[in-house]
Structures are given as C-alpha cells and as structure tokens.
Design a protein that fits this description.
The protein is of the alpha/beta class. The protein has helices at residues 32-35, 51-54, 74-79, 92-110, 126-138, 147-153, 160-166, 232-237, 250-268, 290-300, 303-312, 317-322; strands at 2-6, 21-25, 40-43, 61-64, 83-85, 118-122, 141-145, 169-172, 197-200, 218-221, 238-241. The protein has a six-stranded parallel beta sheet, sandwiched between helices. Strands 2-1-3-4-5 form a five-stranded parallel beta sheet. Helix 8 links the parallel strand 10 and strand 11. The two termini are 40 Å apart.
Length: 331
C-alpha cells in the first residue's frame, strides 16, 4: 500500500511507515504522476482533489486534515468509489481562541464591555456554537444565522440580512459551498451599520473582496480570496490580518492528524484506529471569565504581532502559514 502525505501535516512522520510506503510532498505539488500509484492521500486545503488529479489513479481513500472539503470534488469521488474523510471539529477551540483574542483586541481599541455589543454569528456549527456559548457567558447579546440548521432544528435563528442589520460585530463560521460563496457581497454589505466589525475566520471566498471597500467598517481577517495572493488594499484595511492560522493550535493540529490516521486505519484495517500524537498535551475545556481571557489571551495568541508580520511581508503568506508556531489551547 502507498500513501502520499502533505509534508506540512504534523506528527505523522513514522506513524504509517510500518504498514505502508509513505511519500511526503508539499501540498501544492500533488500531480497526477505523483498520485497515480497511491492507494491513499492525506492532504490539506492546498491540494485540489478533482478529476484532473485523480483520473487513472489507484486512489481509493482521501483524508483531509481540515474541517472543510471544498477542495475535494465529492461528486467525482463518489462516482469512482473514493472514500473521503474530513477532520470536522478538530480545531474548533483553536478558532474560538483566535476569535476571543480578536474580540479582546477590539474591545480594548473601542473601549466597550461585552454587554454593550451585539455579536452576530453566521454559521453555528462546531466553531459557531462555541463562539456563541462563550460570548453569551461573557455578556454579549448574540444573534445567529444558520439556514440549514434552522430548517432542520427550528432553533429561532434569523436570516443573514437580519444579522447584518442588527449586529455590531459579525463573525463568519460557515463552510464554503455554492450557497456561501460571496455570502458577504456588494449588495448585502450595505446592510452593515457604520462602525460595525466584520470577522472572517471561515473561508476567504465567503467574503467578496470587492465588498470590503467600505471605509466605515472594521475588518478582522484570517482567510482571504485567492490565497496566497491576497488583496493588499483589504490587508491594509484590516485591524487584524493573519495568514489562515485561526485554527492552528497544537491541540487542533493533533486532532486533525489523529482523525486522518484513524479514518485511514479503519478503511484499510490497520491497528491505528485509536492513534493520537504523543507530543501534544490534551487540554480539558473550561469556561473562562471575560476579564481573565482579556488578561491572558495575548500571551497565547498575539494577533498584533501576527498581523504586523503579514503586513510587512504579504508575499510571504504561505511561508508564514506553513511555519507558524502552533499555539497552546488553554480553555
């Protein structure tokens, strides 16, 4: 059995070698020639798994060590009996802590207390529900939009338009698909009140870059259209600007690697179905007060320093992302 692995996925060196031939390459260097004789791929978002890559190959299993799967042609995979596994939920607390750091920085800049702001949460899945839980505990009023969940569960969520009209801060936590591509666009961005803040830690293409030209909004941005070739005007406008690392906690990365290996092990009947990286400490989730979070978050997630690094070298987006020092989760 042969497995081709994105070399940027941590903790995997030596894990599969007792059971398979393993080749490690850069995520943007997966080619039809490389994958032709592979039985399985372990990838990130930088590898597009579609007909062009997979046709004529032996690939029967793809694990993506990411929560999203918009880089995988699921219809093609289904038609060709290729099993796809994601790592949904792996880095939810990492993203929560990035958003928390952003809220703390914004509150310091604008001198507000949580009870003075309405937080709009668009997408209430693994990440969004954690943001909602912590934000409400800290005193924010929350208003949520998630049409698929609302249709299934009747939770009282509202439309995207209502969130945009009502919220002081809007944070996006949606997958990228045909419904969420340019979810924020030139038409509906006019609904945001002057002085509002737009946070995007979901997918870059969920926000049309052209919709970020308003000068009376605050932008907090981790994901960008056309990564790694990001728009420098949007970068300059963003109060916080990071290179797609919101979920880059050590625990989130360990979870993603473990989920990928375990799924591959189940598919090929390998004795790794309970494997976990030994290098990373497991953190027990806990609630934390707004005051304690604000006092401690910078030492765990220094968004000002990360933003300065990206603004100084936007052409180094991919290098900054791939060489990011994974932060430790602590709540």
């Amino acid at each position: 059995m042969k497995v081709v692995v994105d070399r940027a996925i941590p903790f995997l060196q030596g894990v599969l070698e007792p059971f398979a031939e393993v080749e490690y390459i850069d995520g943007n260097r997966f080619t039809p020639e490389v994958v032709r004789d592979a039985d399985a791929l372990i990838i990130r978002t930088r590898t597009r798994c579609n007909r062009e890559l997979l046709e004529g190959s032996n690939v029967q299993f793809i694990a993506t060590a990411t929560i999203g799967f918009d880089h995988i042609d699921l219809d093609y995979c289904q038609a060709h009996n290729i099993t796809v596994s994601t790592s949904a939920g792996c880095n939810a607390r990492g993203v929560l802590q990035w958003v928390s750091a952003a809220l703390a920085m914004l509150a310091q800049r604008e001198n507000f207390h949580p009870h003075e702001r309405t937080l709009g949460i668009v997408g209430v899945g693994n990440v969004g529900k954690l943001v909602k839980e912590y934000a409400e505990a800290w005193g924010f009023r929350t208003i949520c939009s998630d049409p698929p969940r609302e249709e299934r569960e009747h939770l009282g969520f509202v439309s995207l338009e209502e969130v945009l009209r009502s919220a002081d801060i809007v944070t996006l936590h949606t997958p990228l698909n045909s419904l969420t591509h340019h979810l924020i666009n030139d038409d509906n961005n006019t609904l945001l009140r002057s002085g509002a803040t737009l946070i995007n830690a979901s997918r870059g293409e969920c926000v049309a870059t052209s919709a970020t030209r308003r000068n009376d909004l605050t932008y907090i941005t981790d994901v960008w259209e056309n990564e790694p070739n990001i728009d420098c005007e949007y970068l300059a406008k963003s109060l916080i600007a990071t290179p797609h690392i919101a979920g880059y906690s050590a625990q989130g990365k360990a979870n993603a690697s473990a989920m990928a290996v375990q799924a591959l092990a189940r598919h090929f009947s390998l004795p790794l179905t309970a494997w976990q990286p030994a290098e990373v400490e497991v953190v027990t989730p806990k609630m934390i007060s707004w005051e304690e979070m604000c006092a401690t978050i910078e030492q765990h997630c220094n968004l000002a320093a990360e933003s300065n690094a990206l603004r100084s070298n936007p052409e180094q987006f991919e290098h900054l992302r791939n060489n990011y020092h994974y932060r430790e989760e602590y709540f």
